[in-house]
Amino acid sequence: MTERIPTPLEVERAALRRRQSVRSVLIGAVSTALLGAALVTVVVGSPGWERVRDTFFDAAVARDALPAVLTGLWLNVRLLFFCALGALALGLITAILRTLRGPVFFPLRALATGYTYGFRGAPLIIVLYLMAFGVPGLRLENTPSVLVLGGIALVITYGAYIAEVFRAGIESVHPSQIAAARSLGLTYPQAMRWVVLPQAVRRVSPPLLNDMVALQKDVGLISLAGPIDAIRAAQIATAQTYNFTPYIVAGVLFVLMAIPLVAFTDWVTMRAARRQSAEGDR
């Protein structure tokens, strides 16, 4: 087979698109540089910049606080992993309970609905205080540690949000697919497992990942209950130095930790949009 030779018109169009792409990149780079220079000029030229720099951006204080903040960040990473698994499992179970049909399942639907309504409206910090300080006050035997109770607060709060995401995905699958699966001899649980849930999870992957990004930030609230995570370590360093730079160090580390997940979320979102566009074209 001979290789197809593009026509002169196609070559001209390709060259025009390349020139337009280069021109767009250059314009974007120049405009970004000008905006950044303007912002730096305004901030650095302000009367109180030197005081703010010494209070929030002290390199020596940041260097001294970094080891302790990194050690605390490892606690945040572990907490994020287990809380994400727990919230996903709780959200999926709750969503399935809310989609059950039949009067016999009404108590389960009512319980799942009340849970999602209540914890979607309750501020996370109040749930955290209630679990971390209220539950130990009951003086029950084998009460978990404050760290575990704080993790439970994160799980039950985010589980309510994730449940609604899963439920939206489940209900987006047309009922005819369940009917077709049942006609092939599958039970309702089997139809949910093999037909509905795979489609539902694929459709709601972007919002699920966005919830994970939000959870990644909120695991820092565990410091309010006492465990020494990155935020708590920064607070201790700030109290010792009377300088807020350790908080900036902790914030930068949280941002760096979130960048891979945010980038993956954007990639999944764009991939899903391209898939829907391709399906629409067909």
UniProtKB/TrEMBL annotation:
Describe its membrane topology: Multi-pass membrane protein
**PROSITE patterns assigned:** ABC_TM1
Describe the location of the ABC transmembrane type-1 domain by residue ranges: 73-265
UniProt keyword Nuclease, yes or no = no
What stretches pass through the bilayer?
Answer: 21-44, 79-100, 121-140, 146-166, 244-264
**Entry annotated with the keyword Membrane:** yes
Q: Which CDD domains match?
A: TM_PBP2 (cd06261)
**Where in the cell does this protein reside?**
Cell membrane
Task: Name the major location.
Answer: membrane
Q: Which Pfam families match?
A: BPD_transp_1 (PF00528)
Q: Which residues form a coiled coil?
A: none
InterPro entries found in the cross-reference section: AA_ABC_transptr_permease_3TM, ArtM/GltK/GlnP/TcyL/YhdX-like, MetI-like, MetI-like_sf
Q: Which UniProt keywords apply?
A: Amino-acid transport, Cell membrane, Membrane, Transmembrane, Transmembrane helix, Transport
Query: According to its UniProt record, which protein family does this protein belong to?
Result: Belongs to the binding-protein-dependent transport system permease family. HisMQ subfamily.
Q: Which PANTHER family match?
A: GLUTAMINE TRANSPORT SYSTEM PERMEASE PROTEIN GLNP (PTHR30614:SF20), MEMBRANE COMPONENT OF AMINO ACID ABC TRANSPORTER (PTHR30614)
Name used for this protein in its record: Amino acid ABC transporter permease
Q: Report the source organism.
A: Nocardiopsis lambiniae
Taxonomy, top ranks, is: Bacteria, Bacillati, Actinomycetota, Actinomycetes, Streptosporangiales
